[in-house]
Write a structure and sequence with these properties.
By secondary structure, the chain is α+β, with helices and mostly antiparallel strands. About 35% of the residues lie in helices and about 20% in strands.
């Protein structure tokens, strides 16, 4: 994996940089000790590690702006970091750069039930937002598996989804505004406590931008009211293909469940051993379907889903009758990722998206590739929106096995694109999928995306080495710069 070349002159000037950063931040907010820096040398993609020059932990937006102004002037690269839960290497540091951590931005600033929104600093965890409004029967819908630790700022950067994104949308569908600081230290406020602002959808551009455009310091999110009734169905199938057919049948019938998840036999057995959720371990595949709404509506939909499942060779059906039973069904799914640690020393979690109708075909092909590579795969994923999470099981202590795993993973992602899907649904591109971008975009597409980065970050100092397989100077692409929230556009010739 190639990263931007290291600037040795900057490394030699590290002591001076530390002094200047400490002139902006309190001493305890600047980490320079080699042992302490180890905590920041990787994110959740632990196959890659790099110790940064230093870590800055600002406490205010003004401090973020001052640090970025300094780094912009000195040509110091900056890697923004939330909780470090990125599975694509999005927060991988640079040897000649600093990590700008947002861990101290951990306050909920406003809970506004009248406008059904919450204003939170970017370091607030995803789950904390729902907990802050639960007493009034509200919650924040996107719920990634890491919601207990992942931050709302990181969710915006990766456009995170979760179990309930099928019905309630991804992060981009649930945020209303942000505060962001550009690399030059300009503080932008985009959107707010209102719907559909006029002009270009800059909020849509920034969501999913993986820290390449600016440092997010504040987010306004939409909260929704909890449904009157929510019930979960646990459906067992004789094969992954039959389970995939059921998922496709549910969606094509016009039913929109709150969530549809799927697990294969590896994940089922590991999860059941781990948390004893009552899963049938003799089933090769399980589908969890959650239906919510008015009680009569949910009862009717359960009957329809049952009929679809019976036409797809279902071998077992459990339907929650109480909230405790619903939580039990979900407990097994939520525990699936950590549970796999009991059956394999390591696993590599992929993130590709495919058309739902291609689920049976793709799952069959993944099983064939598993035999080809001699590596087991556990499938745990958001089946309702086709967001696959194949987990390749391996042992990193075996020489050459990690490389084989990465080749296998790359083949899975190429397959996703080949059948009409995309490289990522919620984990982001980062460094993991960066060199596969050409399988999805041609050179002109990538250059247009890089031009957009140049508008916000003309010198390319923010999170370099991520997303784009070929680095270019903005001067090669037509340099523009955002100023006071406005993007200048060249004159359009009249005809």
């Amino acid at each position: 994996m190639k990263m931007p070349p290291v600037d040795n002159a900057i490394l030699q000037n590290r002591p001076a940089l530390i002094r200047q950063i400490k002139a902006i931040l309190p001493d305890e907010c600047v980490i320079v000790d080699e042992a302490a820096l180890r905590a920041y040398e990787t994110d959740a993609l632990t196959a890659y590690r790099q110790r940064p020059m230093l870590v800055a932990l600002p406490e205010t937006t003004a401090q973020v702006a001052d640090v970025l102004k300094l780094c912009s002037r000195l040509k110091i690269k900056v890697v923004p970091r939330g909780a470090g839960t990125s599975l694509s290497g999005g927060a991988l540091p640079l040897a000649d750069g600093i990590v700008l951590g947002l861990g101290k931005f951990n306050k909920i600033l406003d809970v506004d039930f009248d406008n059904r929104c919450v204003v939170a600093q970017s370091g607030v965890t995803n789950l904390a937002i729902s907990e802050a409004v639960n007493h009034r029967g509200f919650y924040y819908a996107p719920d990634p598996s890491s919601q207990i630790v992942c931050t709302i700022g990181g969710n915006v950067s990766a456009n995170s989804g979760g179990v309930h994104c099928l019905k309630y949308g991804l992060t981009t569908n649930n945020i209303m505004g942000i505060e962001m600081v550009t690399m030059t230290g300009e503080i932008l406020r985009i959107g707010g406590k209102y719907l559909d602002p006029a002009g270009y959808d800059l909020l849509g551009i920034i969501t999913g931008s993986e820290g390449l455009l600016g440092v997010i310091t504040e987010v306004t999110v939409r909260i929704i009211q909890q449904a009157q009734t929510a019930r979960a169905m646990l459906l067992g199938f004789p094969s992954n293909e039959a389970a995939g057919e059921c998922v496709a049948g549910i969606i094509s019938s016009g039913i929109i469940p709150a969530g549809v998840e799927m697990m294969d036999e590896f994940a089922i057995k590991a999860s059941e051993d781990y948390c004893h959720a009552g899963y049938p371990v003799d089933c090769p595949a399980l589908v969890i379907v959650e239906l919510d709404g008015q009680e009569g509506e949910v009862t009717e939909l359960i009957g329809q889903v049952r009929e679809i499942a019976e036409n797809c060779q279902v071998v077992s059906i459990q339907v929650s009758e109480t909230e405790a039973e619903r939580q039990r069904i979900w407990a097994g799914r939520k525990a699936a990722f950590p549970a796999l640690g009991d059956i394999s020393p390591d696993y590599y979690c992929m993130d590709g998206v495919i058309p739902r109708r291609k689920l049976p075909q793709v799952l069959t092909r993944i099983r064939e590739m598993s035999d080809q590579y001699g590596l087991r795969v556990a499938n745990v994923f958001h089946a309702g929106d086709g967001n696959l999470h194949p987990l390749i099981l391996f042992d990193a202590s075996n020489p050459g096995e990690l490389q084989k795993v990465e080749e296998f993973g790359a083949d899975i992602l190429r397959l996703c694109v080949e059948v009409g899907g995309v490289l990522t649904g919620e984990h982001g591109v980062g460094v993991e999928k960066r060199d596969l971008m050409h399988t999805m975009f041609d050179e002109q597409d990538l250059q247009q995306q890089q031009r957009l980065k140049c508008v916000f970050d003309p010198d390319g100092g923010l999170n370099p080495g991520k997303v784009f397989p070929t680095l270019r100077r903005c001067a090669e692409l037509g340099k523009l710069h955002v100023h006071k929230g406005n993007i200048p556009f060249p004159d359009i010739p009249r005809f």
